[in-house]
Amino acid sequence: xxxxxxxxxxxxxxxxxxxxxxxxxxxxxxxxxxxxxxxxxxxxxxxxxxxxxxxxxxxxxxxxxxxxxxxxxxxxxxxxxxxxxxxxxxxxxxxxxxxxxxxxxxxxxxxxxxxxxxxxxxxxxxxxxxxxxxxxxxxxxxxxxxxxxxxxxxxxxxxxxxxxxxxxxxxxx
Length: 173
What we know:
Blueprint: H1 18-37, H2 42-58, H3 65-74, H4 77-83, H5 90-98, E1 102-104, E2 107-108, E3 121-124, H6 129-138, E4 149-152, E5 157-160, H7 163-172
Antiparallel strand pairs: 1-2, 1-3, 3-5, 4-5
Helix pairs in contact: 2-3, 4-5
């Protein structure tokens, strides 16, 4: 008894498909990260990975280093503007910052990658309030802003509450 097989179906791939799967996975991770945090260079990633590992080692690995890594990116000024729905995207936030419409603690912010601390107050110039109002109307306001931000949409102001405290509470629950 002899069976005829379709030889094109049973073709063995040359590299066993490992490299293409690995490349595809890396590419999708990179694209999704760029969607949430904008396009960043490899040096910024390496520096933030080292910083996150050092911070996690200070607390004797009680907390995963991924949380510290996430915290470094979530405290950036452009990300906070996007999460608070004052801008529609990271690029809108960077444009507002570069044109000098964003103030942190009363001084004009010039760098979108600026790391904010507890108690920092973000305000906007009078010229940009009409634009921010249109951004708020076009935003779906979902997902809800993070708990570590206190936002006043009436006076266009953001207050950064202690980020670490909110993160640790969510871990313990």
